[in-house]
From TrEMBL, chains A, B:
It comes from the Bacteria. The RuvA-RuvB-RuvC complex processes Holliday junction (HJ) DNA during genetic recombination and DNA repair. Endonuclease that resolves HJ intermediates. Cleaves cruciform DNA by making single-stranded nicks across the HJ at symmetrical positions within the homologous arms, yielding a 5'-phosphate and a 3'-hydroxyl group; requires a central core of homology in the junction. The consensus cleavage sequence is 5'-(A/T)TT(C/G)-3'. Cleavage occurs on the 3'-side of the TT dinucleotide at the point of strand exchange. HAMAP family: RuvC. Binds 2 Mg(2+) ion per subunit. This is Crossover junction endodeoxyribonuclease RuvC. Mg(2+) 1 binds at D7, D141. Signal peptide: none annotated. GO terms for molecular function: crossover junction DNA endonuclease activity; DNA binding; magnesium ion binding. The keyword Translocase does not apply. InterPro entries: RNaseH-like_sf, RNaseH_sf, X-over_junc_endoDNase_Mg_BS, X-over_junc_endoDNase_RuvC. CDD domains: RuvC. Its main location: cytoplasm. Its EC number is 3.1.21.10.
């Protein structure tokens, strides 16, 4: 399963594509950061982000998309930009007909490091190890996007199995 | 000048198109509300909103778009949805190549009622009078979208004149 992970941000939006299977290490397909100029009008920044994400989806053909769920506890001004960039990512995925999952930062950390409290350094170290990279992905936004994609290949698969089991059980009960 | 006003919201997004000129009353072209089902996934709600706004722009051909600037003081959960819906509106405008202006709620209230502290009731009453409508636009989101459009026909024009004057002065200084 090929997954695009997006760590939304208006100034820097982390993007990472991973080809993976549950319980397997997974392979890096693409990693990068989409940047928009803070000097541009907001609508133009969102347009630039939309075009880059749409092109990335066309180029790397992910089957599913995982986006970080924005949290309201942080600095409110930052949250607004993150929510707007996240909306563009969700929309680009939906326009391409791709299913989208959202994960909180602690769900992602727990999936790749075993601890929801892990620091950025630890997440980057595990992403580097899990994908057998020769150097650490930079900046942190790019590593986070890869962590999201890895998290989804593992957790999404579990969710799918649970859904299948539930569907099978339901079907059985009608026999 | 034909202006689309958007009062962004995820559940209800007010939209209003006004044909107007600075200092003139202006004419109603279209008013409505785009609703999205809270039971749908977020990405699907944003997709629905994007499609409706894109269609509305194609149908009514506004030359400019005015979107309410989202404020962080409100309930943080609501603000997230408003920021996401606002991002979709800004993006739809930018994709159509239309210039976008943003106004705070108090700028809009001041433009149509003379007071930045005016209540919703008063804004609706003024919109009804200014556009010579036989009945009040409902719900409040629709009236707010029309108020945004009226605000922009007036204030945007002043901004344009100032910009023209500044450009002319600058040009003059180089002669």
């Amino acid at each position: 399963m090929r997954v695009l992970g997006v760590d939304p941000g208006l100034t820097r939006c982390g993007v990472g594509v991973v080809e993976g299977r549950p319980g397997r290490p997974g392979d890096l397909v693409f990693v990068g950061v989409v940047q928009t100029d803070p000097g541009l009008e907001l609508s133009q920044r969102l347009l630039h982000l939309d075009r880059e994400l749409t092109r990335l989806i066309a180029d790397h053909r992910p089957e599913q998309v995982a986006v970080e769920r924005v949290f309201s506890q942080h600095n409110v001004r930052t949250v607004m930009g993150t929510a707007q960039a996240g909306a563009v990512a969700l929309l680009a995925a939906a326009r391409a007909g791709l299913p989208v999952a959202m994960y909180t930062p602690s769900e992602v950390k727990a999936a790749v490091t075993g601890s929801g409290q892990a620091g950025k350094e630890q997440v980057t170290a595990m992403v580097t190890r899990l994908l057998r990279l020769t150097e650490r992905p930079k900046p942190a936004d790019a590593a986070d996007a890869l962590a999201l994609a890895i998290c989804h290949t593992w957790r999404g698969a579990v969710k799918n199995k649970l859904a299948e089991a539930a569907a099978a059980a339901k079907k059985g009960s009608y026999r």
